[in-house]
Amino acid sequence: MPDFTLRQLECFVAVADHATIAHAAGALHSSPSAVNTAVTELEKHLGEALLIRRRAHGVTLTTAGRALLPQARSLLAAARDLAPVTDGQVRGHFMLGIYSTLSASLLPAILDGFGRAHPRVEVDFTEGSGDELLAALDDGRVDAAILYDRDITGLPHTRALYQVRAHVLLPADHRLADAERVSLRELADDPFIQFDVAPAWQNTSALMAAAGVSPRVEYVTGNYELARSLVGRGLGYSVLVNRPASDTSHEGRKLVVRELDPAPESVAVVIAWPRGRALSRPMQAFLDWAPGRVAGPE
User: Fold this and answer.
1) Sheet containing 92-99: order of strands
2) Residues near 172 by Cβ (< 8 Å), separated by ≥ 6?
3) How do residues 132-187 score in pLDDT, each as one tens digit?
4) Among 73, 94, 91, which Cα is nearest to 82's?
5) Helices vs. strands in the chain: H and E counts, helices first
6) Domain residue ranges of the chain, discontinuous segments joined by +
7) Does 103 have pLDDT greater than 90?
8) What is the pLDDT of residue 2?
9) Would you say residue 86 has pLDDT above 60?
10) Bridge partners for 124 per DSSP
C-alpha cells in the first residue's frame, strides 16, 4: 500500500500547474514551505526527483514528474468521485479544453446547459490550438477536449458532435458576393487574410494546393475575429471552417459566406478524451449529455 497522501499529490499537481512553489501555495491557500515539504515527501516515497527547483526561475518537471502528472490528476479526480451521492446528483470537477475558434460559439451553451443538467459539477475550461489541446489531454490538464477531428494525432477516444466544411468569407461588396459557390481559382489574384492557428493554416494550404492556387497573403493573424473584421473591411478574403451564427464582423460589417467549389471534405467537431484513463463521473455525465446538444449554427 503506497504511503504518500492525496495532499502530497495535490501539492505536486499545483506546482506543476503554476510553475512556482509560491504561486502553487497561493492557489492552495497554504505556505510555500508546506507545499515544498509535501512535494519533497512525495519524492522520498516514490524514490524519484519530480521537480527541478531553480531559485528565481521557478520549477520544471523531471521525466519522472512528467510521467506522474497525468496519473496524479486521475487519482485526485477519482478521490473526488468517492464523495457519497445521496440525492442522485453527479458531483465533482470537470476540466474542458476547446479549440479557440469554437469557444465563443459553443461554450456559453455548454456552460449553461450542462450546468443546468448537473448543477453540482464544477466546470472549468481552457482554450487553445489543436496541438495545445492534445498536449493538455496527454498530460491530464484537461479531462476532454472539443476540437476538429482533422487535428487529432495519436489515438484518443473521440465522439462526433457535428459536421462542418471549409467556406470562403467575403466582404459584402465583393464581385463574387452573389455567386452561389466560389472556387479558389476565382480568388487567386485577391488579397488573402490568413488565419494562422495550428493546424488551420496547414489545412487551408492543402485546399489551396489542391486547387493549384498560391494565395496572395496580405495579412496573417491568429485572432479569428480579427480575420473576420479584416474581411469585413474589404481588405481581403479568407477561408475558414467555423461559422458563427451571425454573418457580421466584430465591427458590425456585413460578411458573405459562400460554399467552395468543388466542395471540400467535411470535418467533424468531436469530443476527445485519453485512452486508458478511467472516466470520472462528471466526465461520463458530459459524454452522455453533449451529443445532440452541442452543435454548430444551423
Assistant:
1) 121-128, 92-99, 144-148, 267-273, 157-164
2) 232, 253, 254, 255, 256
3) 999 998 888 899 999 998 878 776 899 999 999 999 999 999 999 999 999 999 99
4) 91
5) 9, 13
6) 6-81, 92-160+270-289, 166-264
7) yes
8) 66
9) no
10) 95
Task: Output the pTM of the full model.
Answer: 0.73
Whether 166-264 and 92-160+270-289 are alike in CATH topology: the answer is yes
H-only helix segments in the chain: 6-18, 21-28, 32-46, 63-81, 100-117, 130-138, 200-210, 224-232, 281-289
Grid cell locating 126: 481552457
C-alpha R_g of the chain: 23
Residue 187's pLDDT is 97
Is the bond into 262 cis (omega within 30 degrees of 0)? yes
- What CATH class does 166-264 carry? alpha beta
| pLDDT tens digit sequence for 224-275 | 999 999 999 999 999 999 888 889 999 999 999 999 999 999 989 999 998 8
Domain 92-160+270-289 belongs in CATH node 3.40.190.10: yes
Q: Is 111 exposed, middle or buried (0-12, 13-18, 19+ CB in 10 A)?
A: middle
At the topology level, CATH places domain 6-81 in Arc Repressor Mutant, subunit A (1.10.10)
Q: Locate 219 and state its grid cell.
A: 495579412
- The 8 Å CB, 24+ separation contacts for 53-57 are 53/21
At 298 the pLDDT is 56
For residue 113, CA distances in Å to 106, 146, 291 come to 11, 16, 12
Dihedral sign of CA atoms 70, 74, 75, 79 in order? positive
